[in-house]
Amino acid sequence: MSISWSQALAWRMQRHFLEPVGNESINDVIRRLGAVLATDEDLAELAVGARRVQSRRGDLGQALTEGSIIKAFAFRGAMHYLSPEDGGAYLALRAAGRQWELPSWQKYYGLSAAAWPAFRESVREALKEGPLTTAELSALVTRDAAYRHLRPVFEEGAGTLIKPLTWQGDMSFGPPRDGQRTFQSLAHNPRWSGIWDLEEAGPHAIMSYFRAYGPATHDHIHYWLGEGLSAGRQRLEGWLTQIKSRLAAVDVEGETAYVASEDVDALMTTQPTQAVRLLPGHDQWVMGPGTKDQRVVPSAYRALVTRKANLVVAGGVVSGTWAVKGDEVVMVWFGKNGAPPRKSLEEQVDRLATMTGQPLRPTLQMSATFGPDMPRR
C-alpha cells in the first residue's frame, strides 16, 4: 500500500478535526489529540478552538470547571489538558518511572518511599472538601508534624513535589481562584476513570497515537511516549510487539510507517488538501509528531516552531507564522511555498476574530527567509 505524504497529512488533518473543522466537544478534541499543552491558557484555547466550528474564549475554563476535561502534569513535566476518560492511561505511563523512589528524591524531600503512600493520603484528605490553593494545601498538610519540614517547599510552589501526586491521580489542577492556581480531587468527577493498569495503558496510548498521528513510525512512539512520558524504551518495544497485529504498514514515498488497521481504507482514499489553518505556538499538530519531523516542520523553520511561533499551516505543512499586533494579524508567508493563499488566510483571520472576541484585520508579508524579527506572538 503506497500513498504520498500530502495524502497522509490530509488524513491526519481529518483526524485532528482541522479539515474539515469539527463539531465535536472539547472533551472529544482533547481525547483525540491525547493531550493539549496548558502552560499558556490563551494558546490552549486557540488550539482547541481551531478544531471546533463554534468556539469562544473561556470555553476551556468552563470545561475544566465542569469536569469534562482535567489538567495535570504530564508530557515533559509540563501542564496538559487531558480527558478524564483517557488521561489516566497517560498518567500511568508517566508514573511508571516511580520518581518518588529515587534516593535523591527521598533525600531532598525527606520522604522515604515507605512514607510516600501516607503522604499521598494526607493530600487526598486535605482536598476532600474542595479545591485549595498551594498555600491552603500546605497549611492543611503540614499541620502533621511528619510533613512540617515541607513548608518551605510549598512556599516555593512545590512543583516537583506535586507532580507525582497528579501522575498517581491523587489531585489535579482546579479552576484558578483570584489569579492563583488551585488543586482539586478527582474523586468527585464522575467521568474520571482512574489511573489505568500499566499493561492496559501502554497499548491503549500507542494505538491512540497511531489513530491520531499516523502514519507514524516506532521512532514517533518513542518520542511521544518515551521522551514525553519517560515510559521506558523496553516497555514501549514490548507493547509495540504486542499490538503488531492491530497495525498496518504503509509505504509513504519510500518510508514505512504504520496506521491502525481499521483506518487503512479511509487513509488510502483520502485526497491531498490545500486547507490553511492558523494554529498557536506548540500546537499538537507539531508537538505530536515532534518538531524534528520534516514532513510537518521543514528543517529551515524548526527553530521558529521550537520557540513557540504561531503557525500558518497549509496542506499540513508549516508554511508561515502569524502574530496579533493591536487589531492586526500579521502573517508572514514563507516564499518557498509559492504564492500565498490570500483568501484562505483572510478567512482564517475572521475565524480567529470570532474565537478571541475582538475585531481583527489581516496583514500579509512575504519572506524568503526568516529571522528573530519575525512575529511570534
From TrEMBL:
Stored InterPro entries: AlkZ-like (IPR009351)
Protein name as catalogued: Winged helix DNA-binding domain-containing protein
Q: Which organism is it from?
A: Arthrobacter pigmenti
